[in-house]
Write a structure and sequence with these properties.
This protein is mostly helical. It has 19 helices and no strands. Helix 2 packs across helix 8, helix 12 runs antiparallel to helix 14 and helix 14 packs antiparallel against helix 15. It has two domains: 15-214, Clc chloride channel, CATH 1.10.3080; 229-428, Clc chloride channel. Helices cover 71% and strands 0% of the residues. The chain has helices at residues 2-8, 15-55, 60-77, 87-95, 99-105, 108-123, 131-144, 156-173, 176-187, 196-214, 233-267, 269-286, 296-303, 313-326, 334-351, 357-373, 376-387, 393-410, 415-420.
């Protein structure tokens, strides 16, 4: 009887099971701590650059080019592989089967460089976010945990990478559910049921650590925007179509722009950095100094209907983000995309004056974000969790799916998996030319 219970019962958890759980818990806590550091340091960098610009609007014409040159130099000489948002690198490592290949893109050295260079990019006024880099850093941290325990399940390294990336989203936005959805929808279409518990542990612990330090906050604060379902049809259609179209154009520009610029950038990296730096400064100057940085404060001001942000802001932010990305510096597009969507909402609200302003802003944010990443579930879940707005879940969901469909008609392949091809050998590329 005892022997039967000992060998066939699952009520006793083995030493290896406990060790695996501890690895995921510790890794999740570490990702949460790094995400908190990135949040605080990124906010400091944004404010520091804003203070500089307030003193003289022409300073960015010096700081942005020189700052981008320095970031590009450090990226190429010390932290190769840290460029861009970091999510394409994570997607690429899921396709690579050898530890040596994965280690090149998910080393702790690259993770440290990602943090440092992202902050330096924000100090230079680049239109980048910290959330994509946090995904890269989270995946690198969790991948490094493989050396502490020998897992029994097949390809557990892949699960570590997915869990780290999901934990990065969870801690960066304080959105645990969005982290899980992002892992399933964007990073991996399917994975073993037995690993879901470990992924959940990592994601939840990362969120708990971030909440414990920063408090139980919503990324953009709470909004009371409401609209009746029968009144939501027109704004949902307009926002879904317009923002999906804009998101698809942005993705297409980033994909083709990267292909066109890459050969010239490999030969003349500092010339490209200089030109992009001047581009960022010019766009920032004509926007009234609004397009610099992640766009978090501008998006929050738009949602709360405070400040004077014109209808052109969203389009200028879109352009500034493209220029920043093409420079080759590390930096994400999550936060800038949400700010761009909010800005487009300002423009759309000038047309749809009979409808709820707050609802239009939310529809535009989720529509543009879904159009960029082509991950509709992640888009509406992340906006719902960031704004604590659950009453609009159905129209937000419909907007996300409309925008994704419109975007796919323009940009045939998702942006992250397409950009991931840059880090894959020819025989493992995910997509052909778009």
């Amino acid at each position: 009887m005892y022997k039967h219970i000992k060998h066939s019962g699952r009520w006793l958890i083995s030493h290896k099971d406990w060790k695996a759980n501890l690895v995921f818990m510790f890794g999740g806590a570490l990702v949460g701590l790094v995400a908190v550091f990135m949040a605080i340091s990124s906010e400091w960098a944004n404010h520091s650059f804003s203070n500089i610009v307030e003193k003289n609007s022409y300073y960015p014409f010096i700081i942005s080019p020189l700052g981008l040159i320095l970031v590009v130099y450090l990226t190429r000489k010390i932290f190769p592989g840290a460029e861009g948002s970091g999510i394409p690198q994570v997607v690429a490592t899921l396709e690579l089967g050898h530890e040596k290949e994965r280690s090149v893109l998910l080393s702790i050295r690259i993770a440290a460089g990602k943090v440092l260079l992202c902050i330096m990019g924000l100090l230079s006024g680049a239109s980048i976010g910290r959330e994509g880099p946090t995904v890269h850093v989270g995946a690198a941290i969790m991948y490094s945990m493989r050396r502490f325990v020998r897992f029994r399940l097949y390809d557990m390294e892949r699960v570590l990478i997915i869990a780290g990336g999901a934990a990065g989203v969870s801690a960066a936005f304080n959105t645990p559910l969005a982290g899980i959805v992002f892992a399933i929808e964007e990073l991996s279409r399917s994975f073993e049921v037995r690993t879901r518990g470990l992924l959940l542990v990592c994601v939840v612990v990362a969120a708990i650590v971030a909440i414990a330090i920063l408090g139980d906050y919503t990324y953009f604060g709470k909004t009371s925007a409401t609209i009746e379902l029968k009144d939501a049809i027109v704004p949902v259609l307009v926002c879904g179509i317009m923002c999906g179209l804009s998101g698809g154009v942005f993705s297409l520009a980033l994909i083709h722009g990267s292909r066109w610029v890459s050969p010239f950038r490999s030969k003349n990296p500092y010339v490209v950095a200089t030109l992009c730096g001047f581009g960022i400064a010019i766009i920032g100057y004509y926007s009234g100094n609004l397009t610099y940085g992640s766009g978090y404060e501008q998006a929050q001001a738009i949602m709360n209907n405070t400040g004077e942000i014109g209808s052109e802001y969203g389009y200028l932010k879109l352009l500034a983000t493209i220029v920043s990305y093409l420079s080759g510096i590390p930096g994400g597009i999550f936060a800038p995309s949400l700010a761009t969507g909010a800005g487009m909402g300002v423009h759309i609200s000038e047309w749809l004056v009979a409808y709820s302003y707050g609802a239009i802003i939310l529809f535009s944010m989720v529509g543009y974000f879904a159009g960029v990443v082509q991950a509709p579930i992640t888009a509406f879940v992340i906006v719902i969790e960031m704004t604590d707005q659950h009453e609009l879940i159905i129209p937000l969901m419909v907007t996300a799916y409309i925008a994704t469909g419109i975007s796919k008609s323009i940009c045939k392949t998702p942006i992250y998996s397409t950009l991931a091809d840059n880090f894959l050998p020819e025989d493992k590329k995910l997509h052909g030319k778009n």
